[in-house]
Amino acid sequence: MAAYKTLDGIDAKGKTALVRVDLNVPMQDGKVSDYTRIERVAPTVRELAEKGAKVVLLSHFGRPKGQVVPEMSLAAVANVMADHLNLNIAFGSDCIGDTAASVVNDMTDGDISLLENVRFHAGEEKNDPGFASELAKLGDFYVNDAFSCSHRAHASTEALARELPAYAGRNMEAELKALSAALEAPKRPVMAIVGGAKISTKLDLLFNLIEKVDHLVIGGGMANTFLNAQGVDVGASLCEHDLAETASEILAKADKVGCNVFLQSDAALAREFKANAENRNASVNDVASDEMMLDMGTGSTEELKKVLADCNTLIWNGPLGAFEIEPFDRATFSVAETAAALTKQGKLVSVAGGGDTVSALGKAGVSDDFTYISTAGGAFLEWMEGKELPGVKALGV
Predict the structure, then answer these.
(1) Class assignment of domain 186-384?
(2) Each residue's pLDDT tens digit, 313-360
(3) Which of 94, 255, 287, 392 is the most buried (most CB within 10 A)?
């Protein structure tokens, strides 16, 4: 990961900071249902304001595709953010031009403003240098605190970093440090848990992780495809039968490089996909034609926890079963609780990310006990795949 400048020692007094944040928060009836992204950027916003900068926030909201869509205005988010963080935040009804300039000119040192959705302009997603230049006119330096948007080469995440002196915000810095500790310079042994429905969406991820980790745990519907490739009759389970050959290639490569692939030997079986469906725990070799494997079995779960206890680093993306419905959340929650306990004891560095994973760890009640939980979806996945993130690269010094 390239070196980057942080806010340490920055002389911000009397200067205008253009801060790219991710305020694409879930809202319903004008209310935010999850404040995590707002809370994650608060340290950077407060620090810059306390250092005497004029803090101008830039963000997208939804996918207006270069058009002004009133329902996707950030005006409501500005009000919610101000209330939730107990800050005074002015709002600008455009992010460039005279309207934006007027908002910035009216600010004094320590003031905070949020400008309108950058995606109301087509130049944002096109990474248009002209649009980036218009944004740059508003500030003296640039801060990217939106790791979750940094896999996109957009004007406010990539081109703008080349227009002004660029720095990583505290949220970005924390994310990069956690990810580096987990995969770039980890304390071994390293375990990666990759779950979810289909391997077709995570092929790049699997091939990359095999080269980087000591134990690769494959869970959820993905495990069924691998078991099928090994000749197991998976019954009515979700399975990508056409990817059996690809699964075999992954297993062969893992064997060649010395990566241990952990696949369940028993599973929770049910004939219906619904909460509290009648189920039984059985060997993966004992699945009836009308049964589905909906969770890792109890025996495999206990074995996995033993392997985890001997690891020093854990990276987690995707649940081990259908965690949304009981009782098929047992394996995910049980392993999550073990990982949390090991982390609290100082024995494990645990980093997790991805929507389903964040949700599952929240339901398990262990979110606060992991070393770091990334709010990024696509950016976290692309980083795990070993891809270069344009928004991060642009911060390099």
Answers:
(1) alpha beta
(2) 999 999 999 999 999 999 999 999 999 999 999 999 999 998 789 889
(3) 392
Q: Which of 37, 40, 54, 330 is catalytic?
A: 37
Average pLDDT, the chain: 95
Q: Is the dihedral of CA 215, 218, 219, 224 positive or negative?
A: negative
Segments of the chain assigned to CATH 3.40.50.1260: 16-170, 186-384
Of 62, 66, 110, 355, the catalytic one is 355
> What CATH class has 16-170?
alpha beta
For residue 280, what are the contacts with CB-CB under 8 A and spacing of at least 6? 268, 269, 270
Assigned token pair, 8: 């340490």
- Report the chain's C-alpha Rg in angstroms: 23
Cβ atoms within 10 Å of 342's Cβ, excluding its own: 20
Contact 215, 260 (CB under 8 A): yes
198 flagged as catalytic = yes
Is 65 in the active site?
Answer: no
378 tagged catalytic: yes
Q: Is a pLDDT exceeding 80 seen at residue 397?
A: no
